[in-house]
User: Fold these one by one.
Assistant:
Number 1:
Amino acid sequence: MANKKKILIIDDHPLFREGLKSLIARNPGFEVVGEAGNGRKGLRMAKELTPDLVVMDISLPDKSGIDLTRDIRSHLSETRVIIVSMHSKIDHISEAFRAGATGYVVKESATERLIQGLEAVSRGEYYLDSSLSNKVVKKLMEFPEKEAKITDTRYEALTPREQQVMRLLAEGISIKEIAERLFISPKTVENHRTNIMSKLELHSAVELIRYAARLGLIDVDLWKG
């Protein structure tokens, strides 16, 4: 079939990859052109194969699927990413979409919903697994309002990851919890914090909170008293 959409699968479980390939093979509109078991190989193959679609997990052995989504989208703007993950928490899902994913399916319903998701994303639509709560959509809708308030050049000089960490630190989230949410090590969070404080010319957690409140990133009323 001349117009088959090329798909790259990135997941560290061989049996699950085989299941996805078998499922996708039933649909004449799609073709699996490659597979990878870790983020490093996945990014390399994405650059080599320039797939139309990437189907990947969030939890990879060497790299977060969230970060890998950003990497792929930065190199291949036309490639669409669908996350297929066991994680169904709002934070994971919202992070995936903010990173550039255009579809999200939970693994337990992949058999019923993956092809539907691939078809929707191929049409240029966003796809969210219907088994997920509507609260996810409400969470996603919060972000544009917060982004609109950002005007400080020092904040804009932060990397996207540093901006994420900065917001979480300002909300009072612990280093350990930030690491768990973003699928990175506590040491990496500490390094980001050091860079953030230096770039923003801040010297304490209180200054960071005040700065974030001034930009409208957090509700200052939450910190009164």
Number 2:
Amino acid sequence: MATQLDTLTEKLRSIESEIEAELAKRREELRFRIENRRIVFEKEVLRIHRELKTRATRYLIDANPLMILSAPVIYSLIVPIALVDMWVMAYQAICFPVYKIPKVRRRDYLVFDRHHLAYLNVIEKINCAYCSYANGAIAFVREVASRTEVYWCPIKHARRVLGPHPHYQGFADFGDAEGFREKIGQMKDGVKID
């Protein structure tokens, strides 16, 4: 029997599909397509993009000096992010097979495609690559952590959680002991990932 929460979750999935369809329409409006994992812009669009590019030297000259001084602090985060990324890869490789938890495909979370944008200069492309790596690595870590939580503790919190991971809605309600035992029982042959 479907609960109100099941109905709302289904509506959310339907809306996500509609959003994806709208994004596809927007890609058409921006006149690019993906061919064999390559992004291809129409020639006229590429010409316009190149005209809109700010040269790297102009970009640096126009930059706020405080932004330039803060850049090393921003880029220093690469060290802890890379260490966490590597540690989580090792954690997943060692522990997930033991518990029969389906592994997370890291490459699904690390997307590097902004370098195809002709309107970005070399500094902007480096900044975009950094942000892509940092956010992708953190998203990968979050998915590994969420699958770990699915296996060990599929219980919702009593208080509202901001931005819960996708598996959270399937957790047992806080205080529902029978629901918790049922969820744990489903995990005998590995994590059930919806």
